[in-house]
Amino acid sequence: MSVLRAWLVAVVVSGVSIATSLPLVLLPQPAAAQAAETIAVEGNRRVEAETVRSYFRPAASGQLDQPTIDEGLKALIATGLFQDVRVNRVGGHIVVSVVENAVIGRVAFEGNKKIKDEQLSAEVQSKPRGTYSRAMVQSDTLRIAEIYRRSGRYDVRVTPEIIEQPSNRVDLIFTIVEGAKTGVKSIEFIGNSAFSAARLHDVIKTHESNLLSFLGNNDIYDPDRVEADRDLIRRFYLKNGFADAQVVAALTEYDPDKKGFLVTFKIEEGQQYRVGTVDFRSSIANFDASSMRSFSRVNVGSLYNVELLEKSTEEMQIEASRRGYAFAVIRPSGDRNFEAHTVSVVFNVDEGPRTYIERINLRGNTRTRDYVILREFDIAEGDAYNRALVDRAERRLKNLDYFKSVKITTEPGSSSDRVILIVEMEEKSTGDFSISGGYSTTDGALAEVSISERNLLGRGLYGKASVSYGQYSRGISLSFVEPYLLDYRVALGLDVSYRQQLANSYTSYGVTTLGFAPRLGFALREDLSLQLRYSLYQQSITLADAYNNCNNNAANASLAFNPTPAYIKNVLGGVDPTNATDSGVYGYGCYGDGESSLPVRKELANGATWTSALGYTLNYNTLDNTKNPTDGLLIDFRQDFAGVGGDVTYLKTALDTKYYTPLVSEIVSVIHLQGGILNKLGDQELRMLDHFQMGPNLVRGFASNGIGPRDITYASLGASGDALGGTKYWGASMELQMPFWFLPKEVGLKGAVYADAGSLWGYQGPTSWTATGEVNTPSCPTCGLQYDDGNVVRSSVGVGLIWASPFGPLRFDYAVPITKGKYDVVQEFRFGGGTSF
Predict the structure, then answer these.
(1) I need a labelling partner for 701 at 20 to 30 A (CA). Which of 207, 247, 346, 632 fits?
(2) CATH class for the region spanning 356-427
(3) Homologous superfamily assigned to 30-100
(4) CA-atom Rg of the chain in angstroms
(5) Can you tell me whether residue 169 is helix, strand or coil?
(6) The predicted structure's pLDDT at residue 556
(7) DSSP 294
(8) pLDDT tens-digit series, residues 243-262
(9) Alpha helices for 528-619 (secondary structure H)
């Protein structure tokens, strides 16, 4: 038994020994263990064999095992240089067989008329002298189709064609059938009751197609734009007290019969809320939360407005950082009272995580310099991370209008308390060339050619040059703006201009102005700005001979009170300024063809006048839309002090206020108040040109310069009766603007009814001229300037037609004066407008 057991053990041990030694004796060394030098390359023509071998890197042992061969194979295929790659074992060697991709000789586009070859070439990845790849061509085909869809052509068909050429070369041809534009045929809103469909149409960017759609592209279906419209609608509701509002869906459907898309927005409005209470709480020791009350724009009793809540949070966050609480976080919360329809707002001040900004990475700015982007941040690398300041920077970058899109995201840094800011941008064209044309009843036809650049040299500078030429107005202007002077958030602007205003049916004289005006702009808040300026300009008057042929010379002054009839007839041309011949008429010869007023002729004799003035403008703007406002307040207060050198001295103050508020059924109320005063400083006489000149800009229904003090010296003899202007004015206007509900919203027509009232008075310019004998004396009380300066309230009522046309904003007004001065000039119809094309 023991012998048998010993024999079995011996067999087993022997068997194990034999089995273990078999691979060493009977199997050859596998190819996976070969060195890199044993790799053979077949089929390559342009690519060097050593380049192919370089993709097969040995493992740490110095040998090529199976995993490293697989990785090399994948890397070689990923180069896109080869149509096929195979790895085989032949004997003790590894053989890599490749089939190289062809080389592209040329890339051409056929059938494209709406999009140029240059634009398509910039978008596709397949390039001449590049390697042909089926995957790349397929990607390019989809990209071309996407470009056409972005321009509204969803019927586009793109077919790639390969033409083989000698020496393994191919020509790549993209044949394009563009198809017709696919527009938006209808936009509907479901679930809206607080706001009409017409009002919501104003909120979104997508418009319905109409007869004038060929002049724009907002009627072209764009899924990204529709998605953005969803957010615009939601933000609009949140801004107007609907805290629960949601745009649950934006449904789009292609209608083959209408050959366009039907867009439907489904809205859940919820209740409208007002602010019930506003409280402040802090969990940070020694931080007085109630001290933040002055930074809150949310008021008890007002409509709950998410935008004001966000702005309040942002300003509080910044203030907390300024006080040394770099990691403080302001978190607003709201407790809804569904029965009272109120929201109790609480601003909570808490200690946030201690996180720092490790790095700010910029992506996509190929033209704009890095510092132009980074200066919009109020934080830098190494600072405490502050989400409010990051959001503000993103908003500022978008407002620059240099980029199609801007998005700031965060990535983990090198440690748990570090974050990396990623700024993703897509640049767009910032240069503009425009030819503008317009016509108004005051200035006549006017054309302007201008070229401007908002991001000059990629440095964020603004430059513009323009030339205008019209019936009564001509000029040249150059403008330059450095938005960050010496790296501070201060804008420096420089303007140089030459303007020639010609005589017309409202003024007997022309004015030529050559000026230079530097200015500094400060953004005190998002809704409050201050501008400081200096103006230096030269003005001179031009006058036709017919309006200046009655100027008496010094000889007339010595004979002013005793001219002979012969002298009056032969020397003075029939002018009898003193009524010495008892004619009862103080000018009947040369005044027959009209004569400019004494201040005009005196200004002409004085020659060019220099004005040197310092001024400032304080602007408050909460308008919801600067082009088509429906809600908000705009206040503009300005003062100018002339006398810092120059030939004239005065202090001019003006205030202009507009308040917009929406009423029922899309009716918008506009209240416009304005006023101004010109103060004489010292003994220097005020010029007529420095006075306020008013007309339809104060009370509609009157001509340009048709209101206020007017020369009546020779009005009975056909003299021009020039407007002299005044030193004081006020104006008030009430206007109701409303859409035409029976017309499609996209037509852009609105009607207006209004009532205006105002007055201009207080002429303080020249009234006598000793050199010509035009001096009021007891013997001749009417020898000098005679003018009407009654402080009469002018008023009018009227209707208007406002058209946001593809040709630019146009306005037609018909107003009837109710009260007016005796010598005011009426102009019941007025038209003005223009555009760039």
Answers:
(1) 632
(2) alpha beta
(3) membrane protein fhac (3.10.20.310)
(4) 40
(5) strand
(6) 39
(7) G
(8) 999 999 888 888 878 778 88
(9) 554-558, 565-570, 598-606
